[in-house]
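[job 4471] stage=fold_predict status=RUNNING
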Amino acid sequence: MEKLIAGVYLMTMVMMAGPAQAVDNELAEQAHEALRNATIYLTEEVAYEGGYVSIYLADDPSQPGWAKLGFRPGRTWHWLQSPGSPAMGLSYVNAWKATGDELFLDAAVQTAHSLVWGQLQSGGWDDYIDHSPEGERTYFYRRNEGSENPELTSGNNRSTLDDNITQIVMRLLMAVDQELEKLGKRDESIHDAAIASLEFILSSQFENGAWPRDYPLRGRGYGDFYMYNDGVHFDNLDVLMIGYRNYGDQRYFDAVVRGGEFIIESQLPEPHPIWAQQYDFDMQPAWARRMEPAAACAGESAGVLRILPELAIFTGDTRFLDPIPAAVAWYERSKLEDGTWARYYELKTNRPLFQISMDRTAYWLSYEDHDTPDHYGFKGNYGQGVPRVAEITAQIRKLGPEEYDRQRRQGAEVTARNGPALATDDRQRQPSDLTEAERMERARAMQDDVRLVLQAQDDQGRWVETVPPDHRFVNLWGGHELISMRTFQNNMGVLSHYLQFVNGK
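[job 4471] inference complete, writing C-alpha cells
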C-alpha cells in the first residue's frame, strides 16, 4: 500500500508541474520509489538510534561496521565525519525537499535526534558518539549537564573543529530546524542544540578572528594554534553565515567579519602571498604533525580563496577581495611541471617542499617529489579552481556584491558588454528558480544517470559492493560484500537532484 501511495503522490506532482512531455513520468515514479526503499532499509535495518558509521557488512548490518579509523567497537558507536551520520541526515533532507514526502523528513529528524543526544556540553561534537552506558561515562554530553552523578560530567568535553565534523552536524541541525519551522512543528531539542552549537563557534573564536582545531584549548600543542588545516576556518565561517541567515543574530555576522579580517591579516608576504596551514600565537607559520611543516600551503589556501568572494557578498564589503589578485598570480607562477601544485612551499624561497617516509613514523623534508607516501596529499590539483575565483572576483568588482548576488541567484546571463557569464550561477540557482523549460531540460540530461542508479539497486533498496583487490584496506575488508554510506548518499543525491528538477522544488 505504501508503494502505491508513493507512486500516486509523485505522479500528481509531475502532472501539476505543467506540460509533461519532457518528463519520463515512469522514471520519476521509480526514482521516488527507490529513494523510499533506500530510506526504509537504512532506517529499519542499518541505523542504531538514528546514527550511522561509514561501512557495514551487507549480510548483517546489525553487526559492528567500519568508520574512518577501522573497525568500530560496537553497534552503539556512530561516526560523524562524512559519510557518517550527519551526511546521511542531509541526504534525507535533500530527498524531503525534492519530494515533500514526510518519510524523508522523519528520517532526517531521527538522525538529528541521534546527534543531539551526543552533543558535548562544550557545544560541539567529537569524532564519535557512543550511545552505550560506557559512552555516557567517556564523554560529558550536554544533556547530562547538571547531573549529580560525577561519572556523567567528568568525561571528555573537548569539541573538534577539525575535518568538518562539528560543522556538518550543525548544518544538518539547522536544516532540519528550518524545515520543521516552516511546517509549524518546531522540535525544541533540535532547535536548542543548533543554537548551542552556534554559541560554541562564537566562544571558540579568538579575538583576532581565528579558531583553534579543538576547544576548550588543551594548553599545549599545535591544536591550540590559529588553524586553517582541514577547512577549520572555512567551515566555521560557512556555518556562521548559515546561522545568521536562519536566525538573524548580529553576533554571527560580526564573527564572520572578524574571521574575514583574520584572513587578510594572515596572508603571507611575497614570494608566497598565500596562507600557511596553521600559525602560532606570534602569527608565524607553525609546524603541526611531523609531515606538516611550517610553510606556505597551496592546499588550504585554495579553500581560503573560495571563501573570500562569499565574504564580500555576505558582508557587502569588497575589502575581502583584496588578497585575491596576489594569490591568484602566485598559483599561476608556482605550478609544477606536471600541472599540479605541491601542498607546501618553503618560506622565503617559494621552493616546493615534499616529505619522504619509509614507515610513516619518520619523515624527511625534500625538494624532490619521489618516494613520497601515498597517505597524504603532498601534491595535487590545488589551484585548479583558482581561475574561477579570479573570474568571480572581477565580476563582483564590476557589478558590486549586491548586484552580483542578485544576478547569480536569478541566473541572469551576463552579456559580452558586461563580461563573461557569472561563474557560480548554476550552483546558486535552485530548481524552483528555473523556468519549466530549464527544469525539464536538466531533468532529461540526468535520466541516464538515474537509470544507472536504479539498475544498481537491489530489491531490498540497497546498493551492495565489494572491495576491489587494489584497495588500500583490502586486508581489512576484502572478501566482504559491503554497504557503503558514501555510495548510498551519492546515489540518493542523484535521485533527489533529478526529482528536484521534475517537481520544481
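[job 4471] summary: Residues 1-20, 412-428 have pLDDT under 50 and may be disordered.
[job 4471] exit 0
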